[in-house]
Amino acid sequence: MHVLSGAPRSGATRVTLLTEGTYPHSHGGVSVWCDQLVTGMPDIDFDVIAVTGTGREPVVWDVPAHVTRVTPVPMWGPAPGGRPPRGRRARRLADLYDRFLTALLDPAAEDGFGPALYGLADAAAAGELSPFLRDDRALGVLTSVWNRPDLAVREARPTLHDAVTATVLLEHALRPLAADPPAEGVAHAVSGGVAVLPGLTGLQRHGVPLLLTEHGVYLRERYLGYRTGPYRWPVKAVVLGFFRLLAEETYRRAALITPGNRYNRLWEEEGGADPRLIRTVYNGVDPAAFPPAGPEPEVPTLSWAGRVDPIKDLETLIRAFAVVREKVPEARLRLFGGTPRGGEAYRERCEALADGLGHGDAVTFEGRVDDIKDAYAAGNVVMLSSISEGFPFTLIEAMSCGRATVSTDVGGVREAVGDTGLVVPPRDPAAMAAAALELLDDAERRRRMGEAARLRVIEQFTLRQTVDSFRSVYLELAAGGRTPDDSTWPEAGAEELGSVAG
After folding, report:
1. Among 31, 39, 187, 486, which one has the highest count of C-beta atoms within 10 angstroms of its own C-beta?
2. Which of 212, 242, 277 is where one domain is finished?
3. 313 — phi, psi (to 5°)?
């Protein structure tokens, strides 16, 4: 399904945003960021290729007229059409898939990943890849590769069930290869992973430069998710091998990488990205849209805003609040934000935890709020408990509102906060509770930290800075891109890298 919004304009630079689970079908920090870029650049024509769940998700953002096309690419839901190849084409595709799987499982064969991936993309464009992967022949190829005597995965004795599970996961992950790739302008992937696949195909077929922005580290989040996933090691070896090599291929072929923080930069360099092609561009907010929040609540209150999701680690926050309430019995914890489809069980688990700790009466899940500023104003202290973040919007928005914050030391959080908030280790309820109590006990310190936080946003993290940076990048890449040998491309200074390593 294509959602048409406007007509292309002659002479306008064209940018194709590549998204997954975000803009324009979902709310959240990355979606806000996409909307800011799009609405902030009416001089640029945008298309969107959006990897979605089922393809039935509604467009929830007001898409402006200079977004000329939105193409959803469902990863789940009904299987794509097409037929598996026969005869010689079937044998060629089976050989190609063999090389692809071998690259995922054999360190000595990893150089074959890129050529195999682009061969699979051609099969996807012909309507053959998904039907092939749903056919018994694909299971046979994987079983054969798994049982080679020189591969360590063989020792785990993969089962037929493992083969079916791994093949199903790969079939869904590779569906974006069938999308019509960008054929002109610039492709801008707003995350790593499967959203990048149409961009890599557009680069391979049409030479369209690929820009990558990672807010969180996609590969790290896959590792975190699959660590506790319900799969045996042979399945994890295949799927995580795919995500790892996809990340490396993306880093290797991107014309420019613009991480949202310096922490992500280290992951990208470790994954093979050329340091000369990395430019940190921070998220920004409009300070006028997030003015000082005004008087604090009379009842001591901790507030949180975000997506109800395991990666936000609300369980640690609830456990920390239980410690806070032992010292401040009248304290409240107010949680603002929607629960994504499929996340209901996690929210129920968090509510059960609050009840089980005896604090269900003081912990409220308040859902989406019409004005997010109200969520920050609701607390004396704004909390962030995530186990993975990029450069979180909720944090810099709360800072712009002049609220003191307690945040976990993940991703770009420390870069955002500086010395204007307290930063604690992730998954440490005791440390989080101690920091919250420290601030709840000192109104004057909260006031000073809030004022300093707003000033920090005004000086370093404004929306105008972000939009201007990306407009410059778009125009430069559309005019011919850059290469690692181009000495005019800005590089990070040694002190920047040293500050992260320290």
Report:
1. 187
2. 277
3. 50, 55
- Report CA 402 to chain centroid distance, whole Å: 27
268 is a domain residue: yes
pLDDT beyond 70 at 494: no
Read off the pLDDT band of 92 (50, 70, 90): very high
DSSP-derived letter for residue 379 is -
Q: What is the pLDDT of residues 338-362, one digit of tens each?
A: 998 788 999 999 999 999 999 999 9
**381 close to 439: Cβ distance less than 8 angstroms:** yes
Three-class DSSP category at 348: helix
- Cα separation of the two ends of the chain: 49
Residue 260 shares a structural domain with residue 387: no
Residue 491 pLDDT > 90: no
Can you tell me the distance from the alpha carbon of 434 to that of 432, in angstroms, rounded to the nearest whole number?
5
Structure token digits, residue 472? 């410059």
Query: In the structure encoding, which two tokens stand for residue 249, read together?
Result: 């291929």
Stretch (H or E) spanning 334: strand 332-336
C-alpha 261/C-alpha 178 separation (Å) is 32
What's the pTM value of the predicted model, to 2 decimals? 0.81
Query: Residue 208 corresponds to which tokens in the numbers above?
Result: 């369209």
Check whether residue 128 and residue 50 sit in a common domain.
Answer: no
Q: Is residue 499 part of a domain?
A: no
Mean pLDDT of 264-275: 87
Domain that holds residue 317: 301-460
Question: Which residue type sits at 176?
Answer: P
In a domain, 37, yes or no: yes
Task: Write out pLDDT tens, residues 65-88.
Answer: 999 999 999 999 888 889 989 999
DSSP symbol at 153: G
Query: Which residues are within 8 A (CB) of 285 and not within 5 positions of it... i.e. 6 or more apart?
Result: 393, 396, 397, 400, 457, 461, 462, 463
Q: How many domains is the chain built from?
A: 3
Q: In angstroms, rounded to a whole number, what is the distance separating the alpha carbons of residues 427 and 303?
A: 18
As a whole number of angstroms, the distance between CA 331 and CA 227 comes to 35
CATH number at residue 353: 3.40.50.2000
Domain stops at, among 114, 144, 173: 173
Q: What local confidence, expressed as pLDDT, does residue 493 receive?
A: 33
Identify which of 73, 19, 30, 43 has the alpha carbon closest to the alpha carbon of residue 196. 19
| Residue 143 sits in the same domain as residue 233 | no
pLDDT reported for residue 481: 56
Task: Give the whole-angstrom CA distance, residue 28 versus residue 21.
Answer: 10
Residues 258 and 333 in one domain: no
**DSSP of 203-236:** HHHH---EEE--SS-HHHHHHHHHHTSS--HHHH
Q: Do 411 and 325 lie in a common domain?
A: yes
Q: Please tell me which residue, 500 or 269, carries the higher pLDDT value.
A: 269
Answer yes or no: is 60 within a domain: yes
> What Cα–Cα distance (Å) separates residue 446 from each residue in 166, 320, 338, 396, 484?
51, 19, 28, 16, 46
